[in-house]
Structure formats: structure tokens, C-alpha cells
Design goal:
single chain; two-stranded antiparallel sheet; mainly alpha
Length: 112
């Protein structure tokens, strides 16, 4: 098992470096191909493209610590609601409608 890690760890590091280089190069090429002719913005270097890629990852992708929180929450709710009886489901819908002003039977918001 230990020998397996000796071969996998360098390959994983190499793959991450290769992925970073390819990603930076793609961002650089796309930026320099599209944005200067369209909007008159200036060309960027490879290092600026890597910084832009990192910034987009931080702003739009997060750091990866939370995983897929939204889908996990939906899965938990689906699991909980799947265990409800039909009467319990109707009571739940009615309570949610009262709380949030929504009528599940008609699909329209209640005017207050």
C-alpha cells in the first residue's frame, strides 16, 4: 500500500501543475483573443491570467471546503419528505402556506 502512494503522490502533483498551466494558458488566450478586439481592453500575461483564474475561483467557486451544500440540503429534505405519510404532507404544505403566504393547491401567492 505504501508503494502505491510513492507513485501516486508525484503524479497527483504533476497533474495539478499541468492543470494550472493549461487553465492559465486557456484564460490568457481567450482573454487576448476576445476582449481587446471587442472592448478595447489591453492584453494580459500568463501570470495575470492565473491571478484572474484564482480570483474567479474564489468569488464564484468558493474554496471547496463546503462541498455541494445546496444539493446536500435538497437530498436531506427529499429524504425527510419521503418518509411522511400523505396526511403529514398535507399538514406540512398547509403550515408552509400559512407561514409564507403561498397556497400550494392554487399555486398563487395570497394577497395580504
Amino acid at each position: 500500500m505504501r508503494w502505491k502512494w510513492i507513485f501516486i503522490a508525484p503524479l497527483a502533483i504533476l497533474a495539478m501543475l499541468l492543470f494550472t498551466v493549461i487553465g492559465g494558458e486557456i484564460v490568457s488566450k481567450l482573454w487576448n483573443w476576445l476582449l481587446p478586439p471587442l472592448f478595447g481592453w489591453r492584453l494580459i500575461t500568463f501570470w495575470q491570467a492565473l491571478g484572474l483564474l484564482a480570483l474567479c475561483r474564489i468569488l464564484f467557486g468558493g474554496f471547496g471546503f463546503h462541498g455541494s451544500g445546496r444539493s446536500h440540503g435538497r437530498w436531506r429534505m427529499k429524504e425527510r419528505c419521503g418518509q411522511l405519510t400523505p396526511d403529514e404532507r398535507d399538514r406540512f404544505r398547509q403550515r408552509m402556506g400559512e407561514r409564507f403566504g403561498y397556497s400550494p393547491s392554487t399555486g398563487e401567492s395570497k394577497q395580504q
